[in-house]
Design goal:
The chain is mainly alpha-helical. The chain contains 19 helices and five strands. Strands 1, 2, 3, 4 and 5 form a five-stranded antiparallel sheet that branches. The two termini are 20 Å apart.
Length: 469
């Protein structure tokens, strides 16, 4: 809005301020509306995720973008009416950075396409290495009290995160069946031998105490049943109920996992324990299930990857359809969408290459990068189309578009990148990653839309004389 206002003001020195404001709003309402729609589509795509905080984030940002759009146009009109019309000069000031980008798009098109292709291939390779494995303790810097406290609990008190294994329909049989008690003793010992597991608590702990008290002999089923039935309620609540329940007929084993263990793979750990219970202890798959904080967190992490794929597919599909509707041209829609896959590829590929896993915050970056990149593409193509009507020359139109809308795109990206970069001051690691990668996404999106996008327009020369909606 500001850049366009200054352009109109420079072109019409004798025009009054209200008319300049009216023309600015009239010319910018459509491209800004389209960018809002595509940005909302990008954020709304996060609702395809199975993670509720991600869904809420998408919905809140969609509402926020809508409110920002309305307030920007109303606020711009009000404030500019209150201010005096700035002194204008007919001399157009050209940006050195924008001139360089325009020259690159004009003279070094092959190098741009080759560079983008190489970057896309490297990013795709990095994408193949992307994982979702993460630990809660690593969300915090090592000098924070939270990290130090969790680290102490992990190393000195037998593990941080509880993994619970619940066995169904076995509690009543446990007291009478000696072989079943031996199986649970074996499971208890097996879990304790796993390097990533610290403290293990189960009904077998109580059984070993009874064995020691009975001179190393395990009480028989009759004595165990008799002792259980005559045990005071307060003793049952402390000793038995956390591990075995006659009401639900379930037996529960709690294993506390060491979050600081190098090479810990949550999903693989659960799969290994499950495989051992089936193959070594001969339980059926339906006889038990995993629960507890560790299992829930693992399920969350595993759902992030599928959510990321659904999110990206959804946002690209919606935006492509919107582009076809807005520009009434499949070729223009493809030229706009294809380059804007690169910022997302760069972010996800970079995360894969340097070993940063997906989490609740980083999963949103790809969709946001697409939405931001598409905003730039809409503004640039809209202005490029306007400039093309002047002389029909694609190269000249590119230079003029760079010197007009390119300026606002460039400085908007720079200021927003700085805003996101402030998050590096956080003590919460995902916030730091979010800020850094969003800054990279902003800058890479504007560079792609000021180099690759105009070059593709010049090469393919799509029909752009159709009226935009």
């Amino acid at each position: 809005l500001v850049v366009r206002y200054r352009e109109i003001s420079n072109q019409n020195l004798d025009q009054n301020n209200s008319e300049t404001i009216r023309q600015t709003l009239n010319q910018m309402i459509r491209p800004c509306l389209y960018t809002v729609i595509t940005t909302i589509a990008a954020f709304a795509s996060l609702t395809a995720s199975h993670v509720q905080p991600v869904i809420d984030f998408g919905l809140m940002m969609s509402i926020g973008v809508t409110v920002a759009f309305v307030l920007s146009f109303i606020g711009f009109a009000i404030f500019m009416m209150l201010l005096k019309k700035p002194k204008s000069s007919q001399e157009s000031k050209k940006s050195f950075a924008l001139e360089k980008l325009a020259l690159m798009a004009d003279k070094k098109g092959k190098s741009i396409i080759l560079s983008c292709t190489v970057i896309a291939l490297i990013s795709t390779f990095g994408l193949s290495k992307l994982s979702v494995e993460n630990s809660f303790i690593n969300y915090f810097k090592k000098d924070t009290e939270i990290y130090q406290g969790l680290n102490f609990i992990d190393k000195e008190l037998g593990g941080t995160i509880p993994l619970e294994i619940v066995f169904n329909d076995l509690a009543s049989a446990y007291w009478a069946d000696a072989s079943l008690r031996e199986d649970f003793h074996g499971i208890h010992n097996y879990l304790e031998q796993i390097p990533s597991i610290g403290k293990v608590l189960s009904i077998d702990t109580f059984m070993q105490v009874l064995k020691e008290a009975n001179n190393g002999k395990t009480p028989n089923g009759f004595l165990l049943t008799l002792g259980k039935n005559n045990m005071p309620d307060f003793a049952k609540s402390q000793v038995l109920k956390p591990h075995i329940s006659d009401v639900t007929d379930q037996i529960r084993i709690v294993a506390r996992v060491k979050e600081t263990m190098n090479g810990l793979e949550r999903n693989q750990l659960i799969l290994d324990i499950k495989k051992s219970l089936i193959e070594n202890f001969y339980f059926d798959e339906d006889d038990f299930y995993f629960t507890g904080t560790f299992s829930l967190y693992n399920n969350l992490l595993q759902s992030l990857f599928s959510s990321q794929i659904k999110t990206i597919f959804t946002v690209f599909s919606i935006i492509f359809v919107l582009f076809v509707i807005v520009f009434r041209s499949i070729s223009v829609a493809l030229i706009a969408v294809i380059p804007n896959t690169l910022p997302s590829l760069i972010i996800l590929g970079l995360m894969g290459l340097i070993g940063i896993p997906l989490d609740i915050m980083t999963i949103t970056i790809a969709a946001i990068a697409i939405g931001i990149g598409i905003d730039n593409a809409i503004h640039y193509i809209s202005r490029f189309k306007t400039e093309l009507l002047v002389d029909g020359d694609f190269v000249s139109s590119m230079y003029r578009a760079h010197n007009s809308i390119g300026v606002s795109m460039f400085y908007t990206a720079a200021t927003v990148a700085i805003g996101f970069a402030v998050l590096i001051l956080s003590h919460f690691i995902p916030s730091i990653y979010f800020g850094i990668f969003m800054a990279i996404a902003m800058l890479s999106a504007v560079i792609v839309n000021l180099t690759l996008l105009p070059k593709l327009l010049i090469i393919f020369k799509p029909r752009m004389n159709k009226k935009v909606l």
